[in-house]
Design a protein that fits this description.
three-stranded antiparallel β-sheet, alpha+beta, four-stranded antiparallel β-sheet, 26% helix, 86 residues
């Protein structure tokens, strides 16, 4: 899965980044990738609204299987098709 966000408040943005680091890894300043099971995915979605205000946005892109990703540089190898990529 891919999570991108635009959080106005620095304190909340830092808290969100720390929270997301528990699920995946940062690929850019406001973007995280993760490979998690469905149960963990539901848990993540449940907690994300608490990090936003009306001026913020968080988008979660669920990628099934390996998806179609073109990447350059370091990549992550995936073997299990039952995982959800974040």
């Amino acid at each position: 899965m891919l999570i991108i966000y635009d959080i106005v408040d620095n304190k909340r943005r830092l808290k969100l980044a720390k929270f997301l680091a528990g699920y995946g890894f940062r690929v850019q300043k406001s973007a995280f990738e993760a490979v998690i099971l469905k149960k963990k995915y539901q848990e993540l979605l449940k907690h994300l609204p608490s990090y936003t205000s009306p001026d913020d946005s968080i988008k979660v892109y669920k990628i099934i299987g390996k998806g179609q990703v073109v990447s350059f540089g370091r990549t992550m190898e995936l073997e299990d098709e039952d995982l959800i990529i974040i």
